[in-house]
Amino acid sequence: MPKPPRPDGMTLFFLALAAAAGGTVYALMGPGAVAAAAGRAGGLLLQVAPIVVAAVLISGYAQALIPRESVQRWLGAGSGLRGLTLATAAGALTPGGPFAAFPLVVALLGAGASFEVCVAFITAWSVLGLNRVIVYEIPFLGVHFVALRLLASLPLPFIAALLARPVARWVGLNR
Amino acid sequence: MTLGLVTVLLLLGLLAALAQRRPDRPHRAALGTGWRQLRPLLLRLPLALLAAAFLITLLPEEAVVDYLGESSGWQGVLLASLFGGLLPGGPAVSFPLVLVLIDEGAGTAQLIALLTAWSVLAFHRVAAHELPTLGGRYTLARLLASAPLPIVAGALAGALARFTAAGL
Fold this sequence. Notes:
The structure holds two protein chains of two kinds.
Chain A: H1 9-29, H2 31-65, H3 68-75, H4 80-93, H5 98-110, H6 115-128, H7 130-141, H8 143-153, H9 156-171
Chain B: H1 2-21, H2 27-38, H3 41-58, H4 63-68, H5 73-86, H6 91-103, H7 108-120, H8 123-134, H9 136-146, H10 149-165
Helix pairs in contact in B: 3-6, 5-7, 5-10, 7-10, 8-9
Organism (chain B): Halorhodospira neutriphila
Transmembrane segments (chain B): 43-65, 77-102, 108-128, 140-161
Keywords (chain B): Membrane, Transmembrane, Transmembrane helix
């Protein structure tokens, strides 16, 4: 059986923040304001919880159905503008959180992919990731906002890749 | 939000059906991955929403509009980028927080800068995943190459929004 959740660093951070902010609200505005804010948070939680549960399940299925190896095979050889475009597309399609994405980058570097291609991939994964867009962003923020954000983010993997080469030289990466 | 839930449930059903058609029927693996992602959220999500509700209560009225609203311009974009880079937590935590900010009157370009900074710079993710897997130099080089992106996205989004508002 699963163990009860053990509080990690980030959870403790939010606990401390909630306690400090809640204490301040209590001191400045009294218990009524604390109750009102807690009620608001509870209402939002009830709205959000079903989507979050469905979202983690979708993420689980997407990772089970799209194996890491196929992304890796797809990207290993790419270079130039074609490579960057492929890397951007692969990044947008790669499901899963940082647990899945960063080991993939290590594997790509090991397989001989260039640093620019890896930067394009990880940038696309983070700003264009379709899994997150479909599962979280559209339900929470609506199609119009998401379309505008995706359009504004489309050039970002290429810009980051262009900057990656001089930056890598400056930092002293010998690639 | 209801429409969003319906979409998400349809997608989940579709993926489960696809998994069912595969010879290995990877339901167990999918549920396991999903549960591992959900478990830390059981505590974190309520606490994050509570913290956000308290912080918004403490902010003077109109503060979000003044600093992050449509009219806050590039300073708003810059501030939103800083805030987004420091915002910890995955999408389950940060999208509800963005929802609160929209409610309080934050502007679209500013929110897009915030989300982009949260996506590409997120210091907690760098510390927890990127540094251990990629090492210091790669991480530094990627961060430097990505640092301007939130401002680029915010500026582009602002321009696009003005363009569409001007009557396409």
